Amino acid sequence: MKSNPQYIYIVPLGDVSDEHLETIAESIGEQFGLPVKISPNQGVPVYALDVVRQQYNSNLILQKLIKDIEPDGLKILGVTSVDLFSPIFSYVFGEAQFKGKGAVISSYRLLGNPEKESILGCPPLINRLEKEAIHELGHTLGLKHCADPDCVMNYSVGLDCADRKFSFFCPACRDLMLWNLGLDIFLKT
Ligand SMILES: [Zn+2]
Ligand SMILES: [Zn+2]
User: Fold this and answer.
1) Rounded to the nearest whole angstrom, what is the distance from the C-alpha of residue 166 to the centroid of ligand 2?
2) CA 145 to CA 156: how far, in whole Å?
3) Is the CB of residue 94 less than 8 Å from the CB of residue 132?
4) Could you report the per-residue pLDDT of 134-150, keeping only the tens digit for each?
5) Does 136 qualify as catalytic in the annotation?
6) Cα–Cα distance between 45 and 49 in angstroms, integer?
7) Which residue blocks in 14-170 are alpha helix, DSSP H?
8) 0.70 exceeded by the pTM?
9) Of the residues 75, 107, 145, 184, which has the fewest C-beta atoms closer than 10 A?
């Protein structure tokens, strides 16, 4: 049985730097052991704008990403810099479909202070984006939040917690991720 290659697609949505996209792609490729493709920029997701909140609904972005996924796409990750919200939260760093295909992350709240470019002593934004990307894709592979404070699946209450954890899985999460990834690929081919 010959199986087709299975890709993780990264879809830039609006103002996202190529350098960040490439670093995220490399990091994801390493952690999940799958080839990664970067799609053309789809622009700011205006369809998801809530005019009252002046924020973008991550549920709507996820729905659209999943609807448009390429046939060889196993997972899809939207990357944006607009302020995301999920109906029950005032804002989110990102959102994923648990055991599903799609995830979306934003740099907006990861900057710490959207008014300032960067704050002295803060780790570069890209480190936070990498962790958020791996964390949300972890959810698409059936991983729940992990009690290990170093694990990338640890739930970050704020940026301090996010900065403390590593950008990789603890052994238990890694095993479960690989097992579920195997199942996903098997079911699709
Ligand atoms: Zn999470
Ligand atoms: Zn873990």
Assistant:
1) 10
2) 9
3) yes
4) 999 999 999 999 999 99
5) yes
6) 7
7) 18-32, 58-67, 125-140, 159-164
8) yes
9) 145
